[in-house]
Amino acid sequence: MHALDEIDLTMLRHLRQDARITNAALAEAVGLSPSACLRRLRLMERGGTIRGYTVVLEEPSEPGQVTVIVQITLDRQTDQHLRRFEAAVRRCPEVRQCFLMTGVADYLLRVEARDAADYERIHKEQLSRMPGVARIQSSFAIRTVIRG
Questions:
Q1: pTM, full prediction
Q2: Who contacts 39 (Cβ-Cβ below 8 Å, separation ≥6)?
Q3: Residue 16: strand, helix, or coil
């Protein structure tokens, strides 16, 4: 991975806003020739700074659907315990995102449920039964302000 300069960082900011921007438009936005811009882009891709491009889908917002932010604390933080928990959380389709954290909780999850009763089921039947879970703290989101 090469050190990023200000032009690289500006290119990445533009790509975060619109990964489908044409090379010509990106080059113009950062003040480079198209060939120089493409060379920098390929260098960031080969070096691992840019690992891929994706499509962000608008998730359906069904009436009553809730987003729950869940903090999970494990009873032990050994590599084996972390791997077992992560394998279990990957099998839970309602968990849309999972982050290993520093601080008070070990993991932060974004869970989508049909309603509060559905989240209660997810909590009781899935989250609380995952290996090594010592504590679960749940917060219901009021609304999404930024979706990236």
A1: 0.67
A2: none
A3: helix
